[in-house]
Amino acid sequence: MPVPSNKYDKSLRWALSLTRCATYAVLLLLSLCTLPVSAAAVADNQNYLRFGVLPLQSPTKLASMFLPVTDYLGKKLGRPVQFVTAPNFSSFMQRVARREYDLIYLNPLLYRRSRESGYRAIVKVADEPFTGILVVQKNSPIKSLSAQSLPPGTRIGFPDPDAFAATVMTRQYLQNLGIDVEQQMHVQYFGSQDSALLALHSSLVDIIGTWRPSFRSMPQAMQQSLTIIAETPPQPQMPIALVADLAPELSDKIRQVLLQMSSDSEGAGIVARLGFSRGFELASDAEYLELGE
Amino acid sequence: MSTAQKNDRIDSVSPALHRFRGLFHTLRARLIVSVALVHVVLMGMFTWEAVDRQSQELRQELIHQADSLASLMVVATTNALLAEDLASLAEVTRRVNALDDVAYGEIVDIRGYVMASTRDGRVGQKLARMRTHRDRFPLPKGDSVLDFVEAVRVGDQEAGYVMLGLSTRNLDQELAASRNQGALYIALALIIGSFVAWLLSLAVTRNLQELTVAADRIAGGDLNVRVKVRGQDETSMLARAFNSMVLSLQHSAQAIEKEHRKRTDAERLACVGEMAASIAHEIRNPLAALINAMKLLGSPGLAEDDHQEVVQIVNSESYRLQRILNEFLAFARLPEAVLTAADVTELITQTIQQVKRDPACRENIRIETRFEDVTPCLFDRDQMRQVLLNLMMNALQAISASGHLTLQVKRQGELVVVSLVDDGCGIKASLKDEVTMPFVTARKGGTGLGLSVVQRILVQHGTTLNISSEEGVGTEVSFELMIAP
Questions:
Q1: Do the Cβ atoms of B182 and B47 come closer than 8 Å?
Q2: Residue B417: domain span
Q3: What's the confidence (pLDDT) of residue A27?
Q4: Would the pLDDT of A241 be above 80?
Q5: Hey, how many other C-beta atoms are within 10 angstroms of the C-beta on B401?
Q6: Nearest-CA distance from B103 to chain A in Å?
């Protein structure tokens, strides 16, 4: 019968048209969703990984060193990484205790404390002896260190009581030399490695404890006006630790990216600017535990 | 609305509208409006330019202020932002908040979290959407905050943002004050300009008004009027020229009057002479006939039949003499017309009856009337009867054997036109222009005074005789009478 047949054809065509329209609408919606939006908007919608760096130096200086690292990591992980530091060591460690950072870069001593908050070292700086150094002005009367030769009232500066290489290791070194720092010297803390170096350069102190990366980061003229008179025995290098509740796949990926960082030209350039010529290598948790013992 | 209603409305509006329009036709009004307009336009342009320039400067200043403050905030907060030192950041925003025009100031980390803000309850909140651009003037309607965003950079990496909003309230208030001041200046310019223009127009139009009044008096015939000449400006020169013109006119009028009097006297003398000659000419023949007849009557051998015939001649010539003298008297002593309202058609009908009794009105001449209007008119009944009688007799005498004479009365505006149309011999072309002058006639035995009397009577009625004639075809004469009020 022709009439019902026509009705059926019309209904079918109507249904097909509706389906086609719906398909176009979905495609249009998808196209709109994939339209390029501003970088800020993209960032808003992504979950940042927070990379906390121990305030070894001024925040700006640290940022200029580590922002390329976080950028590199972000690109490799497909997820943005935020660089953050803290006003001082204690603030940093309080935030570590509150697990505010996903990744942390800190000294071995503080790492041991961070373990209690659930951080585990995944890599450490490769092939760089981790030592503390004692620095004086070139024209300083202090030419060598011994309990007998040290002038009375010598002023010594450190970045922070928790600075491992600059403070803990150098103090230990001086103690081994028979020098009682608290008794024989006037101790001052300047908050950061740079501040301690500047204090020495400005003759606010006679001697400071610091470490080589900070010394190297100073302007050439300033470096030439200073001289290293002692260096501590090496200890395990500065680790990068991850908070334990990160997904294992993400932790593995971060480790892989950091380990292979010096393998590509971009990453090699970044670690070179950090002063780590060989980048990072695997870190063993045990070596830091031994350090504590 | 119907057309009639529209017309009524237009009629009621028109006088007021005309008066209003007429106001702007005066030189004074135009001068005042023009000067005031020029003042308003120039002052308006100046004010607009000044406000616009001030607006641009203030806006640029606000942008510079925002730029400088945002840059300062970036410098002041970079380390604290990187170290997430909230206390230092809060100190910065507290100090920023104390500055004028600051609507808000916020420091946001790279993730979009507010680290410090001048606004309560914002710290720790994540912005739903980060502003990525600075505002530009003009701001959208209703937006009174200039929003600025400045990235906190370390090298080529962004570490966060400083967001700053400067209120445009003070700027808007300053601009509004400038605009109001500008409007005040425009109003002042309008008032001062109008007042000055009014003073100027007074100086210009005072002489012109006096000239207008003087011209009106001259139009009324007073040539003794003079206008006062003040100063040395153009209107004073015009007044001086006007006085010279009036003086010249006065001299000319006196000369014309003198000349006219001379001509009138000459014409009167000529007329008297012509009249005397005409009288002499007209009465000479009948008088000669009378003298001869009297001589014959005195001769003894006159037969009885001849005696009767001579007596008949004496009678007819005496009658002729009387008629000639009556016509002369009628012409010479035409009385003053006394105009009264009456129906001219009735007078025409009566005059036709009178004419029909005259021997000149032969049976084969048909007299017709066409009265299209019977409105009462103003005329002297006796004189008008004389006019109609003379014109009808002329027409009948122009018709040689048989013919028609038609008398028409019709309305033409505020006048009634009376016309007589005959199909007689018409008037010779050579006489057409002179036919109403005394003693001009084409008819043998005529005195040439009939149409002259008609013309003089009609002049007393404020009208003249119109003659349209074609020789051999006929003549139409007409005149107009005023409708009685």
A1: yes
A2: 335-482
A3: 44
A4: yes
A5: 7
A6: 23
